[in-house]
Amino acid sequence: MAETTQIDAQQAPNDSEGAVSGRHDSVRPKLRADAADNRARILAAAREIIAERGIEVPMTAIARRAGVGAATLFRRFPDRRSLIAEVFATQLTHCESVLEEAAADPDPWHGFCTFVEDLGRMQIEDRGFTEAFLSAFSEDAGIDEKRLRAEAVFADLVERAQNSGGLRPEFNPSDLLLIFLANGGISEAPPEHAHDLSRRLIAYLLQSFEANGQRAGRSLPGPSRMGIGEVFAAPQ
């Protein structure tokens, strides 16, 4: 880097200096390509291993999965928060679009139910999603504007669903955290059962949220094939 700076600083380079500069120019695209490749490998490895093991996976484990050194990883992402934010950028963008779509539903109770169901599914598909979602919309994550926007949209959806008579008046927007925590435990279940268990739990929760015990046209999914013995035998 220092050599390139000295060359660039010359006012009238001679032919040999021009040759050196040309060699540096030819190297730069390769360096940029290598850096982009390393970044892509780190992000792919991080998405994969966080989905498997959760958000607290060591940064060194991500580097090993990506096939890069720890120094390379920390050059690209100086701390865990910056890496997690990048890893979950797509999921969080999708989460925002799901919320906006739910808010645009002419039936606010239906929109509320759809939003909760979609978030539950996303949570089960990626073990790190719960922690990433909650941290991304926390005051410490550095994205207050996005957090406040999401909170406002969801609070408005809740109010409209309550005014429509679909959602019970006791529901508070902060109760979304209860849904996340309850459904998050199911992500620890064997993968072949997790989706069925989650759908049934979410259906139970939505029924409990309905005003006057109405059913809103949502039937309860059948019980999981997972037996009681398997529940107690599952790793804690």
Automatic annotation (TrEMBL):
<protein>
    <submittedName>
        <fullName>TetR/AcrR family transcriptional regulator</fullName>
    </submittedName>
</protein>
<dbReference type="InterPro" id="IPR049445">
    <property type="entry name" value="TetR_SbtR-like_C"/>
</dbReference>
<dbReference type="Pfam" id="PF21597">
    <property type="entry name" value="TetR_C_43"/>
</dbReference>
<dbReference type="InterPro" id="IPR050109">
    <property type="entry name" value="HTH-type_TetR-like_transc_reg"/>
</dbReference>
<feature type="compositionally biased region" description="Basic and acidic residues">
    <location>
        <begin position="22"/>
        <end position="31"/>
    </location>
</feature>
<dbReference type="GO" id="GO:0000976">
    <property type="term" value="F:transcription cis-regulatory region binding"/>
</dbReference>
<keyword id="KW-0805">Transcription regulation</keyword>
<dbReference type="InterPro" id="IPR001647">
    <property type="entry name" value="HTH_TetR"/>
</dbReference>
<feature type="compositionally biased region" description="Polar residues">
    <location>
        <begin position="1"/>
        <end position="14"/>
    </location>
</feature>
<dbReference type="InterPro" id="IPR036271">
    <property type="entry name" value="Tet_transcr_reg_TetR-rel_C_sf"/>
</dbReference>
<dbReference type="InterPro" id="IPR009057">
    <property type="entry name" value="Homeodomain-like_sf"/>
</dbReference>
<feature type="domain" description="HTH tetR-type">
    <location>
        <begin position="36"/>
        <end position="95"/>
    </location>
</feature>
<feature type="region of interest" description="Disordered">
    <location>
        <begin position="1"/>
        <end position="31"/>
    </location>
</feature>
<dbReference type="Pfam" id="PF00440">
    <property type="entry name" value="TetR_N"/>
</dbReference>
<keyword id="KW-0804">Transcription</keyword>
<feature type="DNA-binding region" description="H-T-H motif">
    <location>
        <begin position="58"/>
        <end position="77"/>
    </location>
</feature>
<keyword id="KW-0238">DNA-binding</keyword>
<dbReference type="GO" id="GO:0003700">
    <property type="term" value="F:DNA-binding transcription factor activity"/>
</dbReference>
